[in-house]
């Protein structure tokens, strides 16, 4: 029996078959088992849009869950700490704290777990109630032989004050050797900006994991398995072509797979022609959903540099790009560095740089 299209070309949606990432997942498993102090218990994932940060965050959460850990996905954006304080933690504690029933009857509210007044929190870097509630949850978890995993997606969107308060609560728990772990994920520039801020010390100590593109075999294997599990097959040459078009980029694996599946119509086999037919859509979607947002915040000087690079069909010589722009080599190097930090370009050997995102060149050439 054949089901519907098994590919999931949308952001934040976990794929049916997760390609690659096994090493990191295994390391995280080990860290959870190793106990407090294991460095891979604090991770900061960075990567370009569509590189699979949210999917990986989901997978890491799942690894913790199967061990019986409490997983707290922190709310994204503003209001992170207040939501944690008012809703998320009280709800968890009410559910899991064997003494919370009694406390509520005698003490009036869950904040009896030890908070001092919450409206002083603005004046101090720490939020005692969040720290205390987290500590309580970690104690409960420990008594069951598990722990607490905190996750935060879109780290760059979190207000710095909230991150600082979270950091101080987390650090407190680390010092107490609590069974606690943290995984944050965000765009490279946002993470860099955050790490530059005061109060983000624990983030600076976290393991930085920069998500790399998937390996070719990983793309091919995931595509073949996704298709097969949904009741079709993909021809060998179509699989190879798909791996070319995808360039190791997870979003494209889903997009190309989806379009090729669709192009095959009612046929049992996805052919080379079906994969080939996806190209216009691929370039167009990448432009709209990935490149346009990625370039939105980029200053003009850096855009000019990218456009000058786009004249080449492959890696560009930094000397030539500077010449095209009529700027000094030194100035060119500054701009190049900024674009590397943004993960829009990558070094490609001595004196060479290349586009970091597939089809970015085509996008820049279009306008
Ligand atoms: N390891 C993977 N294997 C297969 N598909 C993946 C993998 N990781 C991500 N994807 C797919 O890629 C797309 C983008 O993934 P995801 O939303 O995790 O990216 P992201 O890095 O969080 O992007 P953003 O910066 O926009 O939040 C989704 O369609 C998802 O299903
Ligand atoms: Mg995401």
Automatic annotation (TrEMBL):
Residues 18-172 form the Orc1-like AAA ATPase domain. It holds the Pfam family AAA_16. It comes from the Bacteria. This is Orc1-like AAA ATPase domain-containing protein.
């Amino acid at each position: 029996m054949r089901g519907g299209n098994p590919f999931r070309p949308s952001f934040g949606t976990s794929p049916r078959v997760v390609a690659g990432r096994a090493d990191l997942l295994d390391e995280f498993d080990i860290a959870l088992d190793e106990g407090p102090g294991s460095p891979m218990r604090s991770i900061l994932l960075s990567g370009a849009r569509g590189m699979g940060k949210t999917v990986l965050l989901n997978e890491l959460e799942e690894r913790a869950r199967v061990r019986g850990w409490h997983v707290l996905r922190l709310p994204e954006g503003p209001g992170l700490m207040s939501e944690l304080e008012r809703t998320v933690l009280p709800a968890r504690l009410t559910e899991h704290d064997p003494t919370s029933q009694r406390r509520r009857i005698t003490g009036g509210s869950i904040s009896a777990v030890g908070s001092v007044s919450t409206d002083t929190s603005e004046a101090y870097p720490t939020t005692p109630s969040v720290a205390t509630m987290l500590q309580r949850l970690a104690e409960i978890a420990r008594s069951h032989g598990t722990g607490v995993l905190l996750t935060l997606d879109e780290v760059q969107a979190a207000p710095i004050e909230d991150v600082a308060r979270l950091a101080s609560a987390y650090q407190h728990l680390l010092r107490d050797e609590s069974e606690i772990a943290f995984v944050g994920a965000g765009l490279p520039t946002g993470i860099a900006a955050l790490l530059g801020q005061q109060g983000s010390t624990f983030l600076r100590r976290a393991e930085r994991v920069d998500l790399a593109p998937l390996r070719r075999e990983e793309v091919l294997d995931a595509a073949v398995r996704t298709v097969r599990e949904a009741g079709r097959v993909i021809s060998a040459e179509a699989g190879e072509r798909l791996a070319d078009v995808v360039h190791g980029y997870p979003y494209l694996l889903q997009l190309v797979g989806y379009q090729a599946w669709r192009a095959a119509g009612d046929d049992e086999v996805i052919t080379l022609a079906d994969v080939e037919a996806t190209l216009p859509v691929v370039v167009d979607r990448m432009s709209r959903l990935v490149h346009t947002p990625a370039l939105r915040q980029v200053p003009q000087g850096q855009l000019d540099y990218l456009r000058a690079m786009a004249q080449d069909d492959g890696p560009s010589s930094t000397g030539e790009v500077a010449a095209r722009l009529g700027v000094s080599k030194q100035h060119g190097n500054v701009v190049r560095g900024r674009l590397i930090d943004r993960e829009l370009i990558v070094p490609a050997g001595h004196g060479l740089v290349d586009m970091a995102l597939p089809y970015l060149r085509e996008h820049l050439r279009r306008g």
